[in-house]
Amino acid sequence: MGSEKIIKTLFEVYREAVETNQLNLIPAQFAKDYLDLSEREKQGQAVDLEKKRMAVDIVAGLSEVEAVQIYRRLTGISQGSVVDFIR
Length: 87
Description:
Layout: H1 3-19, H2 31-42, H3 48-60, H4 64-74
Helix pairs in contact: 1-3, 1-4
C-alpha cells in the first residue's frame, strides 16, 4: 500500500465530504471552520478553494498511523467506522 495512494484517497474522501456537506466525516477540530464556510457559502461567497484547503488540512493533520487506519476502514480492508477513535 503506497503512501501516495493513501493520501490521494483520503484527500478525495475529505474533499467530497466538505463539498457535499457530510459533516459526520469531518473531524471535530474542523467542524467550526466547516460551519463557517457553509454559512459564507449560503451568503453567496465563493469558498471552493477554501473547501479544498480544508480537505488538505485534514489529511495533513493525520499521523501516518491514523492515515493508514482510516484508509483501511474506508476501503474495507479493516472493520470499523471511519469516525471511530483511532489509537
